Structure formats: C-alpha cells, structure tokens
Automatic annotation (TrEMBL):
Residues 5-53 form the TubC N-terminal docking domain. This is TubC N-terminal docking domain-containing protein. It comes from the Bacteria. InterPro entries: TubC_N, TubC_N_sf. Pfam families: TubC_N (PF18563).
Length: 125
C-alpha cells in the first residue's frame, strides 16, 4: 500500500505519475523530484503502478481472433447483415462493437464472449 504521505508530497511538488506500457512515468517540474523522493518512488513502484492502473476486475484479455474481429468492426469492414443464432443482425459491425463495449464494461462477460465468437463465425462464413 502506498503511503498517503508520499502521495501528498508528490502532489505538493507537482509530480504527476502515470503508467505507460506497464512502466511508471513521473512528470514533474525541474527540481521537484529530489534524490530522496526518487528513492521513495522506486521503493513503492509496484504499489504506485497498482494504484494508478484502472481495475478491470476479473476480465481476461480477449483472444487474438476476437481482437481481429473487433478491429475489423472498427475499420468498418463488417457493415453488412448477418445471421446469428439469436436472429439476424442488420449490421454485424455495430453488433460487434456494442458487444465488445459491454464486455469491457463487465456486463455479463461470459455472454459477451459467446456472442463475439458467434459473430466471428458469421464473419468467417
């Protein structure tokens, strides 16, 4: 757990911490990060990264095949009607994007994964 005193000190000095590509990045005015403060940041690096990253709960990353499906929808390559087990959708791309958004929001993730696999099957057909 990150010390509240460390967070207050960083804020008071104008230090902004971000996580980019799993790395902790400090943006600060010149001279704001002293050697002692830098040592504290290094000592609490893992806790700082954990505190700064948004929690995604227990959602697993999507399989590459579904990532490709979503990218095709984003690129407007799925704008056609498609038959799915639940019925005909008028625009497969819009359906895929809506389903992916619900998955990302944590709304019935297992159901959304199944729907994306079904959409992938319609795309591959």
């Amino acid at each position: 757990m990150v010390s509240p005193d460390l967070l207050q000190e960083l804020a008071a000095r104008g230090v902004r911490l971000e996580v980019e590509g799993g790395r902790l990045i400090a943006r600060a005015p010149d001279g704001a990060v002293t050697p002692e403060l830098s040592a504290q940041i290094r000592a609490h690096k893992a806790d700082l990264i954990a505190a700064l990253q948004p929690s995604r709960g227990t959602l697993a990353p999507l399989p590459e095949a579904l990532v490709r499906l979503i990218r095709a929808a984003v690129g407007n390559h799925l704008n056609f009607p498609a038959p799915l087990p639940g019925g005909l959708v008028s625009n497969l791309g819009e359906y895929v994007l809506a389903t992916a958004a619900m998955y990302a929001a944590g709304v019935e993730p297992e159901r959304q994964i199944q729907a994306l696999w079904e959409a992938r099957g319609a795309w591959a057909a």
